[in-house]
Amino acid sequence: MILADVLSGLVEIDTDLLLAINGWRAEWADFFMYAFSGKWIWVPLYVALFYVIVRNLHWKVAIGCAVAIALTITFADQMGATVIRPLVCRPRPANLENPISEFVQIVNGYRGGRYGFPSCHAANTFGLAFFLFYLFRNRSLNWFIMLWALLTCYSRSYLGVHYPGDLFVGAFVGFVGASLCYWLFSRLCRYKRQEHYKHILVPIWVGGITTLGILVYALMRTLL
């Protein structure tokens, strides 16, 4: 009975947070969050990260690192989409089968899939973020990639396709995947972090320019 009350309270808080985030609206933010939440828009950032890895690691270690990152993303994505979602079956907030969907505002008719617990966006972005946190001893890059992951998560609640709880659990799944895969990578490839890296700020510049481009696009769409 106590456990049921606790879970009920958590669900209520989760719903209130979702409606608060989703309820704050601005036309430019609709365009910004929808674009920021996209996958292909961040390909330049991924290329920049791979460039830094290749520039700073021996080619054999770089290949091992790329494989470990791919395994991290695969673990995070499949653990969420294939294992947990079919067991929990929690409808997305914007899912028309969900009673609260009538209170959720959507953008461009986007409602996502049927279930949303946990968030694969959160699992994937935080999986990558935590792996890079382990990989590089650089405060600027670590802060940037974590803020990028957080804003990605915020955009998912803003769009009404994920509860904050979906995002929190997704981020935890990403953390677990990154921790396991980095541990295997560091042992098998005998990787040790350095103090200094070549061109370590390239991903920050690329990610920053991409974000600025999304903002300019959002403002222009608002003015048109």
Automatic annotation (TrEMBL):
Keyword vocabulary terms for this entry: Membrane, Transmembrane, Transmembrane helix
Domain Phosphatidic acid phosphatase type 2/haloperoxidase stretches: 63-182
Transmembrane parts of this sequence: 31-54, 61-84, 115-136, 143-161, 167-185, 197-220
Domain of life of the source: Bacteria
InterPro entries: PAP2/HPO, PAP2/HPO_sf
Gene3D superfamilies for this protein: Phosphatidic acid phosphatase type 2/haloperoxidase
Pfam families referenced in this protein's UniProt entry, alphabetically: PAP2
Coiled-coil segments on the chain, per record: none
Protein name (Swiss-Prot/TrEMBL): PAP2 family protein
Gene source species: Bacteroides clarus YIT 12056
